Amino acid sequence: MIRSEVPLLNLLADIGNTRVKWACADNKTLFGHGAFTYTQDTLSELLRHNWRELARPEQVYFASVANAGVTERVYGFVRSAWKLEAQQAVTEKERGGLRNAYDDVAAMGVDRWLAMLSAWSRYKKPLCVIDSGTALTVDIILGDGQHAGGFILPGLSLMAAALARETHGIRRRQEQDPEPEYGRSTAACISNGFAFALAGLLDRCFSKTREEQGVELLSVITGGAAEQTLPLVPGQHIHEPHLVLQGLNRRFNR
Question: Among all residues, which ones are annotated catalytic?
Answer without folding.
Answer: 111
